[in-house]
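user:
I keep going back and forth on a fold encoding question. Separate attempts, laid side by side, tell us more than any discussion would. Would you put together a sequence-and-structure record for a protein of your own picking? Write it directly below this note and I will take it from there.

assistant:
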Amino acid sequence: MVDLHQTEPGLPPDHPWLLLSRWGIAWRSALGAIVAGLCVVLVITLFGLLGDSPMPQATLNLVWFGIPQLLVMIATAAVLGPWLRRFYPFGQALLFSGIALAAAFVLAILVEAANRLLDPSTGGVGVFLVLFFAGFPYFLTGAIGYGLAIWSVTPRGRRVFWTLLAGVILLFAGCWIAAQQTAG
């Protein structure tokens, strides 16, 4: 359970995460979310390749769904990052992800309302419903990404994180190129 009234700091006083500015927290959180999101897309692509109808390009295109998610997470980290630092890392990640998900729902409601006002005949599945079904992966991506961001500022975490980021991006790019060549 997350203790919202901690009497001691969640991280040691000399932890590098505590020294970051809000923008330092935001861009590290963005990179962590990119790592987690690309891993999710790659796993979905792998399951698609092992399934009955392999369509790697279609599943790799899920990465575009992550761009609005990434923007919401950057804004959430920039606004709430300094406040979240007082909690334990696990609590920070859960709170960050939950608040980012709530912000995404509010934005989805606003976008859906604007769409309905501009075109009342719009029916079917809206942004809100898509986010409703994607909420759990969104939450996990945010929590894992924020946790990676906290870990990435330590000396050992920095080495592993940058290697992981480069590896995931290269693997995704390789899959993207392979999917383009097989489709064309």
Notes: Residues 39 and 168 are 7 Å apart (CA to CA).
